[in-house]
Amino acid sequence: MTPKELTDKLVNPTPQDIALVTKAYTFAENAHKDHKRNSGEPYFTHLFETAKTLAELGMSATTVSAGLLHDTIEDVDVTPETIEKEFGKDILFIVDGVTKLGHVRYRGTDRHNESLRKLFVAMSQDIRVLIVKLADRLHNMRTLSHVPKEKQERIARETMEVYAPIAYRLGIRKLHRELEDLCFPYIEPEAYKETEATLKKKRKEMEEKLEKFLKNLKKTLGTSGVTNIKTDYRVKGLYSLYRKLKRKKEIQNIYDILALRVMVPTVDDCYRVLGIIHSTWRPLPGRIKDFIAFPKPNGYRSLHTTVFTGDGNIVEIQIKTEEMQREAEYGIASHLGYKAKTTQRGLPLPGLDWIKRLIYREPAPENNTQKEDATRDVPSWIRDLVDYQKNEKDPEEEWDDQIKSDFFSHRIFVFSPEGDVIDLPIDSTPIDFAYAIHSEIGEHVSGARINGKMISLDTRLQNGDIVEIVTKKNAKPSSKWLDYAKTASARRKIRATLQNQNNRHK
Ligand code: MN
């Protein structure tokens, strides 16, 4: 590990960028010098690896430095003042955000996962915080085998249900794929083994066929005058293959286990190559997809087609420009990193509203010129994404349900004064909140404060409210509460108590 290993990965770094990362490196190494990982390795390894991931994603020197420093406040008692003094407000903001996200409690029920993802986004406020957190989690997942057994499954589930979906929605496929594949053996060990064996067997057989076809393809394109191409192929992620196998049943029905990639200089070339391919090999009907004209919701662009190779095989081909390829792997990160080079003072970061829209696909507000200004520097594919409206079903991925639950999710999340997150249906009141915390608290509500102010018990809670319940020993449910309570469980409990009271009075 050396600072140079990190600075070499920065995109067009200035001398200041290199100095900053080097300084953060030395600072973090020193701050964590007595600190070890579960594996027995120096703790600094974790910081170095996190920063390396960020640099590989093309993130700026600021974000890479924040990656090096992300555990200093939490783990080794460096004060926020010191971070600010040594590294500035921006880095402090990111480190602080990552620290706060570390405090969000994962409850592990389906019902909570969606709100947890939203909460994550809301709490991040700056997309860089989210990306540092993802890089942090990636290294934690890579080293999960050193964590005590009883914790492994919980961490893997949390990663699968919260972190991987966020990476996907930010279009950072590289992280998404690796996070999922790292979780897979901990969550479904049997299925993992099976899928791995299936892929291993199939892969060999397919690689040979692919090589042969690739030769033919290059020759054909060359004859048509297309010579400036790069080709490679990608192997489908194990977990993604598993998901698809569950749906398609037979591996013979899955054509994109290995997909051939053809990279050309321009969009025009993409369509030209597609034309040449289709006039040479017969395409499978229904599998031609133009994600250039119609990008996927997370910004993915490419032309996909699947052809009969003529010798009994079927191959999926993806045609794209190199820029599209970079975006496909790094998603929003690729834009943040490269964009940073074009602005004088830091990066025109998208605001929270914008990130929320990106993640939950809320439509952009209409006629709001101020908002428009704020998103002017946002890459066009992201702007498209913001304008994206449902109905665009993506047959390749099983995200429809996720998208729907985003779109039609009618829940809010509120906090207890201790920072616990409770998610409730929209229009819930302090009564629902109290019962959600504990029936005992529900039973004895006498009043409530929202954000420090006393309010009446029929007040509807808003996203992000901090709710404090005042209880009294002799307070008890009244029939009016049935009008206030929105959740079935609170209503059930209130009814039960009222019934008991009545019975006693008889
Ligand atoms: Mn960490």
Overview of the molecule:
By secondary structure, the chain is an alpha+beta fold. The protein has 23 helices and 10 strands. Strands 1-2-5-4-3 form a 5-stranded mixed β-sheet. A 3-stranded antiparallel β-sheet has the order 9-8-10. Helix 12 crosses helix 13 (238-248). The longest helix is centred in the middle third of the chain and has 35 residues, at 189-223. Mean pLDDT is 79; it is low at 337-409. Manganese (II) ion binds next to loops.
Largest sheet: 5 strands, mixed
Approximately how much beta-strand content do the residues carry? 5-15%
Distance between the termini: 78 Å
Low-confidence stretches: 337-409
Over the alpha carbons, how many angstroms does the gyration radius reach?
26 Å
Mean pLDDT: 79
Brief digest:
The chain is built from 23 helices and ten strands.
Features:
506 residues, alpha+beta, 56% helix, 10% strand, binds manganese (II) ion
Secondary structure: elements and pairs:
Elements: H1 3-7, H2 15-31, H3 44-56, H4 61-69, H5 72-76, H6 80-87, H7 89-101, H8 110-124, H9 127-142, H10 149-169, H11 173-187, H12 189-223, E1 230-235, H13 238-248, E2 258-264, H14 267-280, E3 289-290, E4 303-308, E5 314-321, H15 322-340, H16 352-360, H17 369-374, H18 380-387, H19 400-407, E6 411-415, E7 421-425, H20 430-437, H21 439-443, E8 445-450, E9 453-455, E10 467-471, H22 481-484, H23 488-505
Parallel strand pairs: 2-5
Antiparallel strand pairs: 1-2, 3-4, 4-5, 6-7, 8-9, 8-10
Helix pairs in contact: 2-4, 3-4, 3-9, 4-7, 4-9, 6-7, 7-9, 8-10, 8-16, 9-10, 9-11, 10-11, 11-12, 12-13, 20-23
Bound molecules: manganese (II) ion.
